[in-house]
């Protein structure tokens, strides 16, 4: 297994929320969809992190 496929396999679950969102909206692959994907991923993982920290406290 090459490092490229290993990295893609490890990143896949973290990128999934943004990929699903862009796919649901039918956004074409462009630099703008990449920005939207990044925004959605950041929001989702930040909210999950806040919940985890709140449960741990």
Write up this protein.
The protein has 57 residues and is mainly α. The chain has two helices and no strands. It has helices at residues 3-25, 31-56. Helix 1 (3-25) packs across helix 2 (31-56). The radius of gyration is 14 Å and the shape is flat.
Radius of gyration, CA atoms, in whole angstroms: 14 Å
Terminal residue distance? 40 Å
What proportion of the residues is helical, as a percent range?
Answer: over 70%
What integer is the average pLDDT? 91
SSE arrangement, N to C:
HH
- Our estimate of the beta-strand percent is under 5%
Q: Can you count the helices? A: 2
Characterize the overall form. Answer: flat
Structural class: mainly alpha
Strands, total number: 0
Largest sheet: none
Poorly predicted sequence stretches spanning 5 or more consecutive residues: none
Please render the helix and strand layout as text.
Blueprint: H1 3-25, H2 31-56
Characteristics:
mainly alpha, 2 helices, about 85% helix, about 55 residues
Short description:
Helices cover 86% and strands 0% of the residues. With 57 residues, it is mainly α.
């Amino acid at each position: 297994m090459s490092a490229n496929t290993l990295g893609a396999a490890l990143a896949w679950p973290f990128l999934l929320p943004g990929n699903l969102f862009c796919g649901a909206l039918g956004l074409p692959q462009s630099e703008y969809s990449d920005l939207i994907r990044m925004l959605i991923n950041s929001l989702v993982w930040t909210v999950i992190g806040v919940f985890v920290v709140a449960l741990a406290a």
